[in-house]
Amino acid sequence: MSSVPEQKIRTAATALLAKAAQSISQIILGKETEVRLALTCLVARGHLLIEDLPGVGKTTLAHAIAKVMGLDYQRIQFTSDLLPADVLGVSVYNRDTAKFEFHPGPVFSRFILADEVNRATPKTQSALLEAMEEQQVTIEGETRELPKPFFVIATQNPAHQIGTYPLPESQLDRFLMRLHLGFPDRDAERELLKGEQRRDMIEYINPVLDAGKLLTIQKQAASLHASDALLDYVQAILEFSRHSDKFVSGLSPRGGLALLSAARALALIEGSDYVLPEHIKQVLPAVVNHRLQMHANETDSVTMTAAAYIAETVPVP
Amino acid sequence: MATKSARLDSIVVPMPLLAGLVLVGLPLYAYLSPIVLWYVFALTVWSALAIIGKVPIPSGSIRLLLAMVIVGALYVSYGAVFGLIPGTSMVLLLAYLKLFEIKTRRDITVIIFLGYFLASSLFFHSQSVWVALYVIVLAIYFTSLLVMVADRNASTSLLQRLKIALRMVLQSLPLMLIMFVLFPRIPGPLWQLPKDAQSASTGLSEEMTPGDINKLVASYDVAFRVKFDAPPPDNRNLYWRGLVLSDYDGKTWRRDNAPDWTRPEVEIYQQAGDDIRYRVTLEPHQHNWLYALELITGFDDNYRLTRELQLLSNNLVSSVISYRAQASLQASNHGLYPPERRKNLELPAGYNPKTLALAQAMRRTAAGNPRAIVQAVLQYFSNQEFYYTLTPPLLGNNAMDDFLFKSRRGFCEHYASAFTTLMRAAGVPTRIVLGYQGGEINPVDEYMIVRQSDAHAWTEVWLDDQGWMRVDPTAAVAPQRIERGIQSAGLEKQYLPGLLQVNSDVLNRVRFVWDSFQNGWNQWVVGFDEQKQLKLFKMLGLGDVSKSDLMLYLVVAMSFVGLLVAWWVIRSGYYQPRDRVRYYYRYFLKRLSRQGLEITEQDTSQEMLTRLKIKFPDMAEQASNIVKQYQDLIYGQSRNRGTEKTFVRLVRTFRI
Q1: What is the pLDDT averaged over residues A68-94?
Q2: Interchain contact, A311 vs B605, CB within 8 Å
Q3: B25/B598: higher pLDDT
Q4: Predicted pLDDT at A188
Q5: Which residues in chain A are contacts of B601 at CB distance < 8 A?
Q6: Nearest Cα to A139, choosing from A91, A186, A101, A99?
Q7: Which residues in chain A are closer than 8 Å to B602, comparing Cβ atoms?
Q8: Which residues of chain B lie closer than 8 angstroms to A315, CB-CB?
């Protein structure tokens, strides 16, 4: 049983996150679910990949989250001639002090929007992805810690567009979630057309959290109770993904951890004292779909995603 | 998480099921009447076609009609619907019909259990090693079908299922052995089989018409096996007495069926100390008499001995039985009751005038001395041109005249018949004894095998000073038959059983080993009766055990095995104790799904609740409370006895 003060703190965290979600949803209209999942990803200390067409509000979403969370925000536009040094930083010779001085690159901020990440060359991509994984950067033999919390939203154009270097599966695995934003529905679109420029609105919204509070919330999420029954369900999903002949290969142990930490974060956002199978099911598409490749010859793979297939097949224990 | 209805593809399972019915039916075909056999054949073809979709599955009313037609056909061909053969036929045919109405897994299970039942019913017809092996194969096959039914995702191949089934059958062996050894035996058969059981049996029948026994000689079947306590007597002394025939109508000899109990006691005179003790294991022959070595001086209490020294059982011998008896070569029977004397002098009037004249002539020559008459007749047989043959010519109305004066070719029953007729005509009480003569020692297990080919008929003559004296007229014609056995009697080889014709050491050895194996099966499996059971316990040093002791041992042994299995299951982690909370939650879901709420195993409780709120808004509050409590217990940290009880109460008080 959780003690009373602990529960109070948790309730406070839930309230703050609800407020944050509400603020963001004022700017990104009609995308409550995606906003909620993006926040979940942040709370779970994961990185987010948004894959969609240009102009559906990827950048605005990232910007809004950064603002509401009170994190310093850097945007890196990935292009085919971007070099790793442009991301990580570079040492420059200072004639006054007669020393090399390190000029940190944009990666040294708490919140990074890596826009159109699949337009850069694999070398530059991997520079960023390694930083994401290690939470540190090693340049010229010196290891530098990245600030905490550290959150990357990468956006990606659909793979079939011209001039893209699609991320390999091994690197996709480093993103906790992948989201599609999609077009807004009719009402949201109408409001979008009537209202102000969204980017301007961001200027007016107030931060709800700051780096310190976010760190505490992340810690709380990570310690949320996950019962044996729930772990049974997670393991059933992992086992099914590994044994089913529908998938090219199963979920990795990292995939399993990702599923659990995302579900924990969602449980915290929903104000639950423990993780439920519902939470697993809600984060399942975002966490699993980019990790599992379905066999091309499966006729029903056109209509059904890996997550939907799992949710329909694996019994809840 | 709960109840998905157990519907299934009607195509996948029935073919193996049909195969199972065909397999279990095969050995029964020999016993079925032609009409029923046609029904079986037609239903097999019909259901096979229906399964592969060539013909539609018959509707309910047609099935009902078929069932009635089947019952009618059984009644017409057997005159009954109950009884062994009609009963098994009915179960078999209705199992075929059941194939047409498979809707749920339970229907399949029903057919499989009918299969098990039919398989075990094969033992009513025969209890041989072969049948036992076949039944085991069937048990494995039907178990593999059960595995198939239980395997809901159809994730196993035929071979895998057979392997699992084989393992299960092997695992059941210890329990089977315990039951076999410890289950209390009841003396005599457990229940009386209906009369139609095993109508086709080989062996001696209740009456004798010349020509009966030489048919038997072609059979290599075992009649019975004997284990002597001491070395067995010579072949010429091995007269296995079966039944005594006194009634003669000119053609057929029959038993005297006057009630036995009206007669005085048996009178056997015996010298002390020359008893031959032995145990007989008799193959079923569907009659109530037993075979015993002449002259019988002792036998088991549960049988009775008639005045004519026939050893009888109270029941028909329809399964292998085993009994002890003793005999003395010097003993003699001195019982002759006046009506018996009359009976054993009777001849049908008006038949065989030449034979009667010959008898009168012999009587005169011998001056009425019975011993001399016997000698005269035997000399007549050996001096005249009489032949011992398996292919005697047919005899006319005056059979004895034809035989004695025309054909002069005959088998033991001809000689016994002619001898008895002559002796009776000469005024000496004489009767025919049917049984076996001889026997072959199996060197492998030292059992003596007596076969149907050893069937024999001989006679007994009453001498006032000596009692009944055995006279074997065949010995006068073919002494080798009595001295060395049927295969040395100089008979036409082509009419003897194939195996008796061959003179090969290797083949003989194989034959003996195989026979000793069959004998072992009879002694220790089929014939494992109360006596053997008690003997086994004595050998194990448990002393005398009563039936209630046996029951106790049985319960203890079964519990021991049960505990062993339980310990193994718990240790291997297959077993999870029942969770009260989950149990009651499942019960809650079951009630909801009975109300028509769609619930699948893949649903989370929240998803179920969402659907419930739409379908039954009235229940929403109660149900959300239950779901909340369930989540708290299973996924939260608040589980204790109190919260469990609250939950159980909530579910129990849930009203739809």
Answers
A1: 84
A2: no
A3: B25
A4: 82
A5: 315-316
A6: A91
A7: 311-316
A8: 1, 601-602
- Domains annotated for chain A, with CATH where assigned, are 4-223 (3.40.50.300), 224-317 (1.10.8.80)
Q: Do A274 and B635 touch (CB under 8 A)?
A: yes
pLDDT tens for B546-577 read 878 888 888 999 899 889 888 888 887 766 66
Question: Over the range A1-31, which residues count as b (16 or more CB within 10 Å of their CB) and which as e?
Answer: eeeeeeeeebeebbebbbebbebbbebbbbb
Q: How far is B582 from chain A (nearest CA, A)?
A: 9
pLDDT at position A88: 84
Query: Is residue B67 predicted with pLDDT exceeding 50?
Result: yes
State pTM to two decimals: 0.56
Give catalytic residue positions of B: 412, 456, 472
**Residue closest to A26 by CA, chosen among A192, A226, A257:** A192
Taking an 8 Å cut-off on Cβ atoms, the answer to whether A311 and B602 are in contact is: yes
Same domain, B271 and B419: yes
pLDDT (0 to 100) of residue B145: 92
Residue of B4, B604, B609, B611 to mutate when probing chain A, most A C-beta within 10 A: B604
Instruction: Report yes or no on B181 lying in a domain.
Output: no
A276: closest chain B residue by CA: B635
Contact of A225 with chain B, judged by CB distance below 8 Å, is answered with yes
Q: What is the pLDDT of residues B73-119, one digit of tens each?
A: 888 888 777 777 888 888 999 999 988 888 888 888 999 999 999 99
**Among B135, B190, B454, B183, CA closest to B318:** B190
Rounded Cα distance between A3 and A235, Å, is 29
pLDDT in tens, B39-53: 899 999 998 888 888
In this complex, which of A1, A2, A276 lies closest to B635 when CB atoms are compared? A276
Q: Does A136 touch chain B (CB under 8 A)?
A: no
Query: Cβ separation of B601 and A273 shorter than 8 Å?
Result: no
Q: How many residues does chain B have?
A: 656
Same domain as B134, residue B218: no
Number of domains in chain B: 3
Taking CB atoms and an 8 Å cut-off, how many pairs form between chains A and B?
A: 48
Same domain for B167 and B217? Answer: no
Angstrom distances, CA of residue B652 to CA of A199, B597, B613: 57, 19, 20
Structure confidence at residue A159 (pLDDT): 62
Do B121 and B28 lie in one domain? The reply is yes
| Contact check, Cβ <8 Å, B607/A273 | no
Residues B255 and B347 in one domain: yes
Give the one of A229, A276, A316 whose C-beta lies nearest to B603's C-beta. A316
With contacts defined as CB-CB under 8 Å, which chain B residues touch A230?
A: 635
Average pLDDT over residues A137-161: 80
What share of chain A has pLDDT > 90, as a percent?
A: 8
Query: Inter-chain contact B1–A274, Cβ cutoff 8 Å?
Result: no
The H-or-E segment that residue B652 falls in is: helix B641-652
- Residue B635 to residue A275, Cβ atoms within 8 A: yes
Q: How far is residue B483's CA from residue B419's CA, in Å, rounded to a whole number?
A: 20
The 10s digit of each residue's pLDDT in A247-294 is 888 888 989 999 999 999 999 898 888 899 989 999 998 898 888 877
Return mean pLDDT, chain A.
Answer: 83
Whether A34 and A173 have beta carbons less than 8 Å apart is answered as no
> Directed axis angle between helix B129-150 and helix B158-171, to 10°?
120
Least confident of A100-104, B346-350, B373-377, B488-492: B488-492
Distance CA(A84)–CA(A241), nearest Å, equals 36
